[in-house]
């Protein structure tokens, strides 16, 4: 029997106001609780006032959650980088993992540098840019390797 398909949605956004560490902790606590209830997993990276997030889970639940996220007035310039169906999760062990780029392990510095550049550039046509596909593949693969080795 095949595994059910899940939706992996990846997006960037920009905070309207600066998020302090305490603000991030509150956001993460709420997200983790809600994601646990919905069966959604993922990962959030915060760099300055830009956010890069991966959401994985049942298609309808991820789409509904992303709809709510995209309407959240605390951020703007929400840009979907990828919306793909997958048979397995990359972040299955985390209701919402979190890191700043500088927190990620040095072995994956290339993917993190590309991610930092992408977040800083805020490319309006990011979804059309071939670099995005390469970056996402590198970033997601770095976490597959981390999961295997960690």
Layout: helices, strands, pairs:
Blueprint: E1 6-15, H1 21-38, E2 41-47, E3 50-57, H2 59-70, E4 75-86, E5 97-99, H3 109-121, H4 130-149
Parallel strand pairs: 2-5
Antiparallel strand pairs: 1-3, 1-4, 2-3
Report what the structure shows:
With 150 residues, the chain is an alpha+beta fold. The chain has one domain (6-149): Alpha-Beta Plaits (2-Layer Sandwich). Helix content is 42%, strand content 27%. The chain contains four helices and five strands; from the N terminus they run βαββαββαα. It has helices spanning 21-38, 59-70, 109-121, 130-149, and strands at residues 6-15, 41-47, 50-57, 75-86, 97-99. A five-stranded mixed beta sheet has the order 4-1-3-2-5, with helices on both faces. A hairpin with a 2-residue loop joins strand 2 (41-47) and strand 3. Helix 3 packs antiparallel against helix 4. The radius of gyration is 15 Å and the shape is globular. The two termini are 28 Å apart. Mean pLDDT is 77; it is low at 122-128 and 146-150.
How many beta strands in the DSSP annotation?
Answer: 5
* CATH architectural designation: 2-Layer Sandwich
Side by side, the strands of the main sheet go 4-1-3-2-5
Secondary structure category: alpha+beta
Q: Which percent band covers the strand fraction?
A: 25-35%
What's the end-to-end separation, in Å? Answer: 28 Å
Task: Give the total of domains.
Answer: 1
How much is the average pLDDT?
77
* Bulk shape: globular
Return the CATH class: Alpha Beta
Radius of gyration: 15 Å
The CATH topology comes to: Alpha-Beta Plaits
> How many strands, what sense, and barrel or not for the largest sheet?
5 strands, mixed
Number of helices: 4
The helical percent reads 40-55%
Low-confidence stretches: 122-128, 146-150
Instruction: Give the topology string: H per helix, E per strand.
Output: EHEEHEEHH
